[in-house]
TrEMBL record:
It comes from the Bacteria. Keywords: Electron transport, Heme, Iron, Metal-binding, Signal, Transport. This is Cytochrome c556. Pfam families: Cytochrom_C_2 (PF01322). Residues 1-22 form the signal peptide. Gene3D superfamilies: Cytochrome c/b562. The keyword Lyase does not apply. Coiled coil: none annotated. The keyword Iron applies.
C-alpha cells in the first residue's frame, strides 16, 4: 500500500512538473515574448483607432514591453529549438541568425526612440504604429511560418 502511494505521488509530481518544464522551453519563452509584443501593439492600436482614450502610461508600458522583448527575443532561438511546441519560427532564422538579430534590434531601437519622444496623442500613436508595424511585418515575412 505504501509503495503504491509513493508511486502515485511520484507520478503526480511528474505530471505537475511537465507544464512548468514546458514553460521554460525556448519555443514557449519566445512565444510568450511575442504574445506580450502583440498585446502591446493591440493596446497602441486601440488608442490609434480611437477605441480607447489616449493614456500616456499605457503607451509607455507598451513601448517599454516592445523594446525589452524585442531585445531579448533572438536569444530564444538556440540550435535544436527549430521545431516543437507549435513554433511558427521559420528555418530561415537559423540560416541567417545575424539578420534576424538585426531586425529584432531595429524593432527594439524604434520602440526606444518612440519612447524617448513619447507619442503625445492619438495621431502620434498612430504614426508610431506605422513605424513599428512596418518593422514587425518585414521580420514576419521572412522569419515566421505561414500557418
Amino acid at each position: 500500500m505504501r509503495l503504491t502511494s509513493l508511486a502515485l505521488a511520484a507520478a503526480l509530481g511528474c505530471l505537475c512538473l511537465s507544464p512548468a518544464a514546458a514553460q521554460e522551453e525556448p519555443q514557449v519563452v519566445r512565444q510568450n515574448l511575442m504574445k506580450e509584443i502583440g498585446r502591446s501593439m493591440g493596446a497602441l492600436g486601440a488608442i490609434a483607432k480611437g477605441e480607447k482614450p489616449y493614456e500616456a502610461s499605457v503607451v509607455q508600458t507598451a513601448l517599454e514591453t516592445i523594446a525589452t522583448n524585442a531585445k531579448a527575443f533572438p536569444d530564444q532561438f538556440p540550435e535544436g529549438s527549430e521545431t516543437g511546441m507549435e513554433t511558427e519560427a521559420a528555418p530561415a532564422i537559423w540560416e541567417n541568425m545575424e539578420d534576424f538579430r538585426t531586425k529584432a534590434e531595429e524593432l527594439s531601437s524604434e520602440a526606444e526612440t518612440l519612447l524617448a519622444s513619447m507619442p503625445a496623442d492619438q495621431a502620434a500613436v498612430g504614426a508610431a504604429m506605422k513605424t513599428l508595424g512596418s518593422t514587425c511585418g518585414t521580420c514576419h515575412e521572412t522569419y515566421r511560418l505561414k500557418r
